[in-house]
Predict the structure.
Amino acid sequence: MEFLNYAIDLVAVLLLALGIKGLSKVRSARSANQLAAVAMALAVIGLLISYLGTPSFDGQAWAWIIVGTLVGGVLGAITAQRVPMTSMPETVALFNGCGGMSSLLVALAAAMFPGTLDDGTLVAVVSIVISVFVGSITFTGSIVAMAKLQGWLSTPPWMQSKIRHLVNIALAVVCFVAAINLIAADGSSQAGLWLLVISSGLLGIGVTLPIGGADMPVVISLLNSYSGVAAAAAGFVVGSQLLIVAGAMVGAAGLILTQVMCNGMNRSLVSVLFGGALGAGSGGGGGGEYTNITSCSVEECALTLEAAERVVIVPGYGLAVAQAQHTLREVTRSLEAAGIQVDYAIHPVAGRMPGHMNVLLAEADVPYEQLKEMDIINPDFPATDVVLVLGANDVVNPQAKNDPESPLYGMPVLDVQQARTVFVVKRGMSAGYSGIKNDLFELANTSMVFGDAKKVLGDLLGELKELGVGKK
Amino acid sequence: MDSLFLMGAATASQTPPLVNALWVLLLGSLLGFELIGKVPPTLHTPLMSGANAISGITMLAALTAIIKADGSTPLLVLGSVSLGFALFNVIGGFLVTDRMLAMFSRKPARKENS
């Protein structure tokens, strides 16, 4: 019987690992996701089998298991079906927070009823402390991240000042004191436990709240990593190796992703977490005066597109916010029908999360082959007739290559200025997320088309139809 | 679960459980780094969502809490609520990931467009 449990656990771990590996290839990703789901189910079955026949595993326990499963499962399924693709970052944050909450509750249960779940050793107590601390931070941090992305919450001014560092350090000290107190009392100090829960929860809020909206995906990815750590710590509490392995894998995954996102934005994790909003000092007006701006009408834009042979679309955050991906697809369809080659240049951090833009464009039926990564498309820009920049700003700023003084210097960017003509669709002349002036807008081959991305694309579609583009 | 021979990390059954658990932690982390190091940017959001669903594996701990509660109502309730949160994470996470990935796997079939 014991052997069967080990076998099931082993297969579950193997499938989880294969699932994560399969998620790294487009073709196998979907089946890999299902494989991981099967692995999770297998792990649950294995656990249930291992306790089958234990006296405490009675009808009452089954009833509570079924209640928890139904409520959580149904709510999860409904949320997953209903949520629009554009609010994917918030959704991941919400799910992630609940994972953290789950680990926190288990650790609380273990601490309040010593000896039932854990073996009462120092290791178990330390694991409880870690699980409470990380779980609590993950929960409040994820919820704040979600609320900020949804626009339900904005950062209070004092949180943007230096005071927040003092507050957070004080909270961290309280966490540490509570943890020591709890460990010294062999986990039986109720005061220490609740102090730890509250102070680490507040710390999660205090650390996440000052972080700017565009940095939020990095934070969510980091919190995703934390929830893995919380799960691993819960694994130490209840003595489950499977839990430790899976938690550790997720923890490592989150860290790698976080690093990738930071690299793409040319920011260090430290500056994201402690630097506050970049360019916040320059205020709302933001980033230098523009001279020499050429703006043009949608009609001119349509005429230039009609004459082009090769067009590259650079979608960005603004496109995602305006939810204009479907309209964009209509425009590119008519261009393609006219024999114009259309590609999409995807910056590693385009959208609101790495890969988010790919998801949005895939939703709008853009063929996967047309989505070109930065390194692939950059050499093609000199041979490109028209570049259409939609709601992207910093990722097309030539300063990152030309101006060693610029804060953006060194960030990988799309070399759109090498194309014959560049159209930038933008709502106004406000600076990008970095608050830095974009030299691209002043170049002779750049024209600005002012307006909301969705409206401009709709008008563009109308103009193209009038010109008869794409009609045989 | 105090033997780790299945992980291939340590064969000595006398090894203390903590050492075994730390081995598991170490190998799991290394495995995670290795598995995830080579993902194309396209798949980062689905991967994050998928990994997030897997972090709901903490439902195993919640189940253990319910099973070991031995009739203690507060423990049953805590375990059940914890299980609910974890399953919200797991079911929601996998379904949402599947929704995203379904879009990628869809062939470039053009919808009829008037």
User: Anything to note?
Assistant: Chain B touches chain A through 96 residues (CB under 8 Å). Chain B is about 65% helix and 0% strand. Residues 53 and 93 of chain B are 4 Å apart (CA to CA).
